[in-house]
Specification:
The chain is α/β, with parallel strands linked by helices. It has seven helices and five strands, in the order βααβααβααβαβ. A five-stranded parallel sheet has the order 3-2-1-4-5.
Length: about 130
């Protein structure tokens, strides 16, 4: 089954009550489409304890958080080298994506360039 991958921008939009994002997540849930993100994206968005990010914590509970291992890190670095880009987190998100997946992002242009360079058939959806 294809997944919906979330970048940091998607989590920020969720915390800001973005209705378009809620609709996209609802469609994914209805279609039993898994949500996925690399663990490093959590570091980008997580800032507090004590209930401050309770809402984000609930969403994270529904997301498959993939640990970045050495192979994934090397593949992301290789992609960065091929594109001349420098955002390792974006590259990691693209390397994690499989053909047929969609990436929900606030950085669609940069993600699309990485997807194209990776030669993947992955949708890039702006949030």
């Amino acid at each position: 089954m294809t997944a919906l991958l979330l970048d940091a921008g998607a989590f920020v939009a969720y915390e800001r009550d973005d209705v378009r994002l809620f609709a996209r997540l609802r469609v994914a849930q209805t279609g039993h489409r898994p949500l996925r993100t690399p663990s490093i994206v959590v570091a980008q968005v997580w800032r507090g304890t004590g209930g401050r990010q309770a809402r984000l914590a609930r969403l994270l509970g529904a997301v498959d958080i993939v640990t970045i291992d050495a192979d994934l890190a090397r593949a992301a670095g290789t992609l960065l080298g091929r594109t001349g880009s420098s955002d390792a987190i974006d590259a990691t998100l693209v390397v994690l994506a499989k053909d047929g997946d969609d990436i929900l992002t606030s950085d669609a242009r940069d993600i699309q360039a990485l997807v194209d360079a990776a030669g993947k058939r992955v949708g890039v959806v702006a949030c």
